[in-house]
Design goal:
Length: 294
């Protein structure tokens, strides 16, 4: 039995689809099962609730051979590290109690970076907690998600502006979530691996924000320029829309770590890039993103 957390999220729902296409037995933990695709709901076991709840985890992990572990973001959280560990501590207890053999975790590239890195530092603490249980573990280590740009799709189309709180001339390695999902599904279905390892997942492109804007201009067939927001204005905008100041500061700390090269060590040692390039992703995913409702 394969157990998925966050099965309605961007990564989880793709992993679920891949596993069901292979005919795998899947159990999901879902707060709102109605958010699952109807065809998926009919083919999976569902444990209703939060994967922060020890009782829910105990039920879901019973008889499980492998688990996809993903901590969902919470922009309202006042303590980023505690948000990640608040989910992960009860999971670690349930993994041990239920004898789960393998866990695939959604983490970040850059583990070992010494300075504060916001949400990335919290993901590394999650990795350490899971590894301390002794479970066989694969930490999927990713850089900047291409899908982070989807919330800017309307601004890109209508105003021709790409906005990120990072330096215009610092290259960022990129990855598409469909490539993450493909590797996660493969590992979850494979009962031959053991031990604990980090699995870097990086696409074939490394682009500066200015370079991303050039590709976007070509794909969208309109000029796109990059603008780096002022840090204080960026923080104020996020908090004005309801984000906790601590979560907003974490995003700024993460951006500073990206500018400082947090991804560089794993990026330099990569031998086989993930398949999806940025231009391909823009054509196939970004251009298909629905326009906001009036």
């Amino acid at each position: 039995m394969i157990v998925l957390t966050a099965p309605t999220g961007r990564i989880g729902r793709q992993v679920l689809g891949l596993l069901l296409d292979e005919g795998r037995k899947v159990r999901v933990i879902a707060r709102d099962p109605d958010r699952l695709a109807p065809e998926a709901r009919e083919r999976v076991e569902i444990v209703r609730g939060s994967h922060r709840d020890p009782a829910v985890l105990g039920q879901a992990f019973e008889g499980a051979g492998s688990v996809l572990w993903l901590v969902p973001p919470d922009p309202g959280a006042g303590d980023i590290r505690e948000h990640y560990l608040g989910f992960t501590r009860p999971a670690c207890a349930a993994l041990t109690d239920r004898g789960v053999r393998r866990v695939v975790g959604v983490s970040s590239l850059g583990r070992g970076y010494g300075a504060p890195a916001g949400q990335l530092s919290a993901a590394f603490a999650m990795d350490e907690a899971i590894e301390a249980t002794g479970v066989d573990y694969r930490s999927l280590a990713m850089p900047f998600f291409m899908e982070n740009l989807l919330h800017q799709a309307d601004a890109l189309r209508t105003r021709g502006v790409l906005s990120l709180p990072v330096a215009a001339d610092r290259a960022l390695p990129l990855v598409a979530t469909r490539d993450i999902a493909a590797v996660a599904a493969r590992l979850l279905a494979d009962d031959s691996w053991s031990g604990q390892e980090t699995v870097p997942l990086i696409g074939p492109d490394s682009l500066t924000p200015d370079g991303m804007a050039e590709v976007l201009s070509e794909v969208l067939e309109r000029p796109v320029r990059f603008e780096r927001p002022d840090a204080e204005e960026y923080r104020a905008t996020l908090t004005r829309y309801g984000m906790n100041p601590a979560w907003a500061q974490g995003l700024l700390d993460m951006a500073a770590a990206q500018d400082d090269g947090i991804y560089a060590p794993g990026w330099r040692t990569l031998t086989a890039p993930a398949p999806t390039g940025f231009r391909q992703w823009c054509r196939e995913v970004l251009t298909a993103a629905p326009a906001p409702r009036p």
